[in-house]
Amino acid sequence: MLPQNLTIFPQARILDFETKHKMAWNVPKEDLIHIPEHWLVYPEPEASMHFLLGLLYIGFFLMSTIGNGIVIWIFTSAKALRTASNMFVVNLAFCDFLMMIKTPIFIYNSFQRGYALGHLGCQIFAFMGSLSGIGAGMTNACIAYDRYTTITRPLDGKMSKTKAFVMILFIWIYTTPWAVLPLLEVWGRYAPEGFLTSCTFDYLTNTFDNHLFVGSIFFCSYVVPMTAIIYFYSQIVNKVFSHEKALREQAKKMNVESLRSNQNPAQQSAELRIAKAAITVCFLFVASWTPYAVLALIGAFGDQSLLTPGVTMIPACTCKLVACIDPYVYAISHPKFRLELQKRMPWLAIKESSGDTQSTTTENTSTVSSAPA
Hints:
2 strands, disordered C terminus, 373 residues, mainly alpha, disordered N terminus, glycoprotein, single chain, Rhopdopsin 7-helix transmembrane proteins, membrane
């Protein structure tokens, strides 16, 4: 019997330890009211999961702040890059930069294994995330509109700096209420989610007002920019494909291989470049915010048992990853940006020749073709 007792006793101690350590076990009582009850029934995640996410966010922080910081610096200081279209690129880089400078809150919480910075840290984290996330979505929509007007109306569709400034001002006027209202708890509120190390708007409280808020913010911050992006880029692809088809038909009638006598064979066709740009932009937006949109709808209108702490940390990572990728997709693929980067940081060995920045068609088309490729 003695060996059996010695075996059972440690197991009993382990079971007792596990039952005590639920989520928020180390949260002060005064802060428990800010945590949705949904999370309190789950056991605390393993410490290794907290540390892994903390290390991942350190990588996100370095990659995004350096990349977006360089984009803001180069585009604002280089005279050749101070165009109306590039104002949107700078605004997107600022949104992504703003999104990532709040990650030290998450990193600290992760290494402290929970809600370490409390309600204040949660509110700062969620407010900056809402402001930058919705702002980035609307900026993507404006970039799509700018490229749509440039390529479909090359003579009168060129964006002016005044118009670009007004559109950027509208972006922030449109975005700010969605970030401020939950902060002041006028409509909706911010609450911790997942491992209680990150925060976003509360999609779990089962009230009519909260359901209406979730539905409204889903439509205004996801459906509206998504619809604009898909519409404008689909129109661009349709326009370019129609133009290329007309050129091929005319060349066939004239019994020549191509009407583009000065076309560089090494270059991709215009239709492929534009198609890749449209697919890349749409994919980035879908990949970053669709998980959050689906998660919020499930939390407000679906089966909340599907939202485990581990599952809800996935959207938090996807939107941060895209904030790291954006500067490379929107800017580093830009020949003039690479040329300026080469001048200021020759040790990067970019080897961009000034001839590569010349457009093979028109200046307006060059602006559009600087999209992801």
